[in-house]
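Good morning C.,

I know you're traveling, so I'll keep this short. The sequence:
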Amino acid sequence: MRLALCTVCPDARQQQLLDIVWTGWEAFAKKHSLPIRVIEEPPPLESPYWGKYTPFQLPDLREFDAVLMLDNDVVISPEAPLPSEGWDGERVRCVDERAQFPHNQERFEPYYRDYDLEAPEPSARVLNTGVLLFTRDHAKRFLETYEQWRDWRAAYRLRHGGNADVFRLANDQPHVSHALLRSRAFEELDPQFNRLWWAWWEDGGRRQELPLKIYAKAVQILARALPRTLLRPLAAPGGAWWRAALRKNHFIHVAGSKSPISLYRWGR
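The tokens, ready to paste straight into the viewer:
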């Protein structure tokens, strides 16, 4: 099976994130002999972020059978194995977020209700789409999900009018997660392949997320003014956190607040 490491990078903000993680991506790709394809102009869809599910429409992906599709805020450990080991391509591979939060499973109960979607199964779970393994055949099914999302968005706008939440209108993950769960067209990856940074930091609820966010944001702001000789000592504790996280996980996903990626950049 011909596999490519792939990402969608449609704007300057996404490019900035990709620049930070790029060295690790290149090392991973070289280690596993994977070509990298960066999609700067995804297919003409109503949201460019749906382009991550339809890459096989593009000439650059014509020669490949499958993709390891990553969000631009995913940091890869130098020792990471391939998430495609033992994969036959029959089902989409992704990580179930619930596996990262055994101490607080009830946080998933309202997730689909927030998007006016019927819970796909009695035990709520969320498939995180920041790291996905899928084939050309799966991409066809994702197009069907995209059309369903368009219908949902039109109905959502009618129901909420000017009060429609922009984030909810644009978010692809709940709809793809919902479709995969209902069809059972997925198989779970080890959570180490998509560890959410704040889940790792909370570590079973023993640490609070906010202090790290404030520290990371401060480093991000100071990076605009301080020389590297002064900035690096300030970022060093954050760099130590990143090294510890990457020793225990294959991919760290900087979902939500992006400021901790500054600690990765300046604390190394």
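Safe travels,
E.
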